[in-house]
Design brief:
six-stranded parallel beta sheet, five-stranded antiparallel beta sheet, 31 strands, 4 domains, disordered C terminus, Rossmann fold, about 1000 residues, Relaxase domain-containing protein, 37 helices, alpha/beta
């Protein structure tokens, strides 16, 4: 892990905790803080400038450098022009002393350090410091001169030399094992410029200038990934055995073999001691509502005890203390086994799989991936695919793999395309393109024959019946939309603002009309709860599915159609609700199914709300491409009936945020506090004061959700405990006396993030990932029992009246459900909404958040975030697409051309064949010569050609059978019409707006 902060941020807190009396964080105190542990492994100066100047670390030298000054002994010996005879740079009143560079290995390395003898400790420190030096080369290339006038732009970043002071610390503030390096990047560097001298010659000019470090903050995650990869290689070089691991935050890292995740977790926060502390407090009658509270109180006590203790301890005593802490979580047998694994184990070198790499979630959720993000992911992926001990070597390998992945001969349709410093896949463009083509194809499947006209008239009769039986009167927009549905087009698009009755009017009519006509209807949505609303709209429960579950029914594991499903569901109708949240890849797959089943598609949504988490904006794009006769728009708000609640939702819709704040202020529904903590506390208090059962808290980020959930649960448990104290006969719905600390997970871009939370019977939870055959992502339930066993916890929950059982070792994707994200709330309606505002909002998010309510909406926001909230709530999230991008389109066209003109060179098809055959022959006992690549390729092409011919014949047979079936069906329908009673001739339909059909 490599982290960058402004110098002194954590040191200042530490010194304050130690009750130091000072007027600010001066260099004397800072040096004292950093030098605290440097008894055996002295601080060093590095980065190029220090080497050139021959500088060695001392407290006085460090204090001078932190002040931007050259040490006095060197002022007449260096080739730099000093300001006022002593300073490297001009010192201003707001001079930034430097930048903190914190590097820390995985916890297992700290544990190994604590158990090692001096030589072992020295090897680990050397590996860490060597890695720091490599990362400093990266930093030197990213920093630039700080100059408001921009006169120092043309410099050579490869020749920049920086100055860094590095200190090694062995433990954290609780004297737990935590080896880490503190680096201080001084706020100046030597930059090299190419300038023309008086003779007209190009010469190098070196200048020491103040730093602009903005770019290193932007590349922090990439830097951290590279640090772990290089450190892993350095430790392997020194004889350590390592393996793949993942942090609790979901980041990829490594672990020393022989250690376990449970051991790391135990030593990282004195887990067992905290549990003992919780049990002790229970006996005193004190119960903690969440782990955060318990851990905070424990740490507060522990730190107050160890702070003074740490001051008095020598380095040897600190080393003994951290060894004792490690031995608390590892038995002698476990330590012995670890030593055996480290001594006898073998480091595995893996092969880099480009195709597997490109299946990572970053490519499924983003149309374009930034270069920094791609390089970070590659650094993670290459960690065990070689021995990358240097920054230069790792950088070279990353560049090589990027070039390989840009070549369609290696990856075919999965190849990368570079566009303005970002990357996309050819398959991303293909999916976006094909989804639009499929939708346009469906829109062309309309018939104006007599039979179709007669069917439309019958559908209009069904609309009259629907209107007469409806519990509410359809407004003009809803009538127009239902009339468009009655046309029975191959594609129907319904666009409607939040709360305009899309589900309760249009989808409900579409379901009833098609069921009356004997047509099978499917209701699809990205959200499980929205799929449940489709069931309420009259669609058969078994056919109301979230899109992911639906696609598993349509396709097998190889990505081919499920033939039985396709044949069974011919001539159906598919309705997609919240269609703006469906990504391009899913649109492509769904529309492929619709085309294959000769069915019709109705898509319903609103592009003003949140779009797909996955890449693509198909719903918005099809509206631009499609003839307007296939689109109907709803704009009359029926969710908020009247008054300010309606005006607020519509002001959010129109991005009139000033009006939103005026209305909220007038209605006393705008609550601001000085800090985010006080803001959350106020929100939670108001939420619990509200006795309406139909209410929701909406937050913008997972961090905010966790904070709100924690305080809400604290409130609930505290109230239940108080009621139990006051009334001994009171039976709480929460079994707060039997709470369990459970490690739960939340899906992330490339894995999951883990967190320890407290749960008991009675807790209401939201499920964050599908559990096959039991629950779907977004469903909520109530825990009815928890039992601990050797493999985790057996949990039983009531979900929609159904008992669901699972073990947390197998499924851990759930959380407390007091607060929901904007995405999880879209498509839902509540009487009252409590919205925790965030400066990171967009107009799409704020419109969703500000339109869930029927009656009341309240916005809670800290004072410093108000202006940014206003500014960002008026901005739409950027719609990014590959469609229309000439670079991508040209690359795709070139790819298609290469397939048609040179099939034998398509390495994405046959790249593995040469290798497989070569290995097969090499492993045989035969002395026959190996076949040439050309012979292998020709044999493969012959097989492929025969497959294509066979497939073409099969498709022709299917098409012939389909046409014969169509002829038989038409003949039968004609006979039925001749025998049927004459239908009452319907009156021409009129919506009341001059549109007759």
């Amino acid at each position: 892990m490599f982290k960058i902060e402004k110098t002194g941020k954590n040191a200042f807190k530490y010194l304050t905790d130690c009750e130091k009396q000072h007027n600010g964080l001066n260099n004397q105190f800072f040096a004292q803080y950093l030098e605290a542990d440097n008894k055996h492994f002295k601080a060093i100066l590095s980065g190029g400038m220090a080497d050139d100047m021959g500088l060695e670390y001392s407290t006085d030298v460090f204090k001078s450098l932190m002040s931007g000054e050259c040490p006095e002994a060197l002022r007449n010996k260096i080739p730099y022009d000093l300001k006022n005879g002593k300073s490297f740079v001009n010192i201003k009143a707001d001079y930034q002393a430097g930048t903190d560079l914190l590097s820390a290995p995985p916890k297992s390395v700290s544990m190994e350090f604590s158990l090692s003898d001096y030589d072992g400790k020295k090897k680990i420190v050397e590996a860490m410091r060597e890695t720091d030096l490599e990362i400093q080369k990266f930093i030197a290339m990213k920093v630039k001169p700080s100059c408001d006038r921009g006169e120092y732009k043309d410099f050579d970043p490869s020749k920049t030399k920086i100055m860094v002071a590095t200190f090694t610390h062995y433990e954290d503030r609780q004297i737990d094992p935590h080896i880490h390096n503190h680096g201080v990047l001084m706020n100046f560097a030597e930059f090299t410029f190419n300038e023309v001298n008086e003779k007209g010659e190009m010469v190098e000019v070196k200048k020491v200038l103040a730093l602009d470090v903005e770019d290193i903050f932007k590349t922090q995650l990439e830097m951290s990934s590279m640090y772990d990869t290089i450190l892993n290689a350095r430790l392997r070089d020194k004889g350590y055995k390592t393996e793949y691991a993942q942090t609790s935050e979901g980041h990829q890292t490594f672990r020393l073999c022989g250690f376990t995740e449970a051991q790391e977790k135990g030593v990282s926060k004195r887990g067992e001691e905290i549990k003992e502390f919780i049990e002790q407090q229970k006996k005193k009658g004190k119960h903690f509502a969440n782990m955060t509270m318990a851990e905070a109180e424990y740490k507060k006590l522990a730190q107050s005890q160890t702070r003074e203790e740490k001051k008095e301890l020598s380095t040897e005593e600190i080393w003994k203390t951290i060894r004792d802490e490690t031995e608390k979580v590892m038995t002698k047998d476990e330590i012995s086994n670890k030593n055996k694994v480290q001594k006898l184990g073998v480091n595995q070198i893996e092969k880099f799989d480009m195709n597997a790499f490109l299946e990572r979630n970053i490519f499924n959720t983003n149309t374009y991936v930034s270069e920094t993000e791609l390089r970070k992911e590659l650094s993670n992926a290459l960690r065990f695919c070689g021995n990358h001990t240097s920054f230069v070597g790792l950088e070279k390998e990353i560049n090589k793999q990027i070039e390989r992945m840009k070549d369609p001969r290696n990856l075919g349709i999965n190849a990368l395309v570079e566009v303005d410093g970002a990357f996309t896949k050819l398959s991303t463009y293909q999916n976006e393109k094909k989804s639009l083509e499929n939708l346009l194809l469906l829109s062309s499947k309309n018939s104006n024959d007599e039979q179709s006209k007669a069917q439309e008239q019958r559908n209009l009769l069904l609309l009259d019946k629907f209107k007469s039986e409806s519990k509410f009167e359809l407004n003009a927009g809803q009538e127009d939309a239902c009339a468009l549905v009655a046309k029975n087009n191959g594609l129907t698009v319904i666009v409607g603002d939040a709360g305009t009755g899309k589900t309760t009017s249009v989808i409900k009519f579409a379901a009833e009309m098609n069921k009356a006509n004997g047509v099978n209807v499917f209701g699809l949505s990205t959200q499980t709860t929205t799929a449940e609303a489709l069931e309420e709209a009259g669609i058969d429960k078994n056919n109301c599915l979230n899109t992911k579950l639906f696609l598993t029914k349509c396709y097998d594991k190889t990505g081919r159609f499920n033939r039985e499903f396709i044949e069974r569901n011919q001539n159906s109708v598919f309705i997609i609700d919240e269609a703006g949240m469906v990504g391009a890849e899913d649109y492509k797959k769904i529309t492929d199914v619709v085309v294959a089943t000769n069915s019709k598609l109705i898509i319903v949504g609103d592009q003003k709300q949140l779009s797909s988490v996955s890449y693509g904006h198909t719903f918005e794009q099809i509206q631009e491409e499609l003839d307007k006769s296939f689109i109907s728009r709803l704009d009359i708000n029926t969710r908020q009936k009247e008054g300010a609640s309606k005006e607020i939702a519509e002001a959010y819709r129109d991005k009139n945020i000033d009006k939103v704040f005026e209305l909220l202020d007038r209605e006393n529904c705008l609550i601001t506090e000085k800090t985010s903590k006080k803001t959350i506390e106020r929100l939670v208090n108001d939420y619990f004061e509200d006795k309406d059962s139909s209410k929701i808290i909406i937050c913008g980020t997972n961090q905010e959700i966790d904070a709100v959930n924690g305080i809400c649960r604290e409130r609930v448990i505290s109230e239940e405990i108080e009621k139990s104290k006051l009334d001994k006969k009171y039976k709480s719905s929460y079994d707060f006396k039997n709470q369990y600390e459970i490690t739960v997970s939340r899906p992330t871009a490339n894995g999951s993030r883990k967190k320890d939370l407290m749960f008991c019977a009675g807790d209401e939870v939201v499920f964050l990932k599908n559990m096959k055959g039991s629950v779907n992502n977004g469903q909520t339930g109530k825990i009815t029992s928890i039992k601990k066993n050797n493999s985790g916890f057996d949990v039983v929950a009531n979900v929609d009246g159904k008992e669901v059982k699972f073990n947390t070792n197998e499924y851990s994707y759930f959380n407390h459900s007091f607060a929901l994200s904007s995405h999880k709330s879209q498509g839902k309606t509540y009487n009252n909404t409590y919205h925790l505002g965030s400066s990171k909002t967009t107009s799409n998010k704020s419109y969703v958040d500000g339109s869930r309510h029927r009656n009341q909406y309240k916005l809670y926001i800290d004072e410093k975030s108000v202006e940014n909230f206003k500014k960002n709530a008026a901005k739409s999230s950027r719609k990014v697409t590959t469609i229309g991008n000439k670079t991508v389109e040209d690359a795709y066209a070139a790819y298609l051309k290469s397939i048609k003109t040179a099939p034998l060179s398509n390495q994405h098809l046959i790249g593995g064949i040469i290798k497989d055959n070569t290995e097969k022959y090499a492993n045989s006992m035969s002395n026959k010569p190996l076949p040439s690549d050309r012979e292998i390729l020709e044999k493969y092409e012959m097989k492929q050609r025969q497959k294509r011919i066979d497939e073409e014949l099969r498709q022709r047979e299917i098409e012939l059978q389909r046409k014969l079936a169509d002829i038989e069906r038409i003949e039968q329908n004609y006979k039925n019409q001749q025998n049927a009673m004459t239908l009452q001739k319907p009156t021409p339909y009129n919506s009341g707006r001059g549109m007759s059909r």
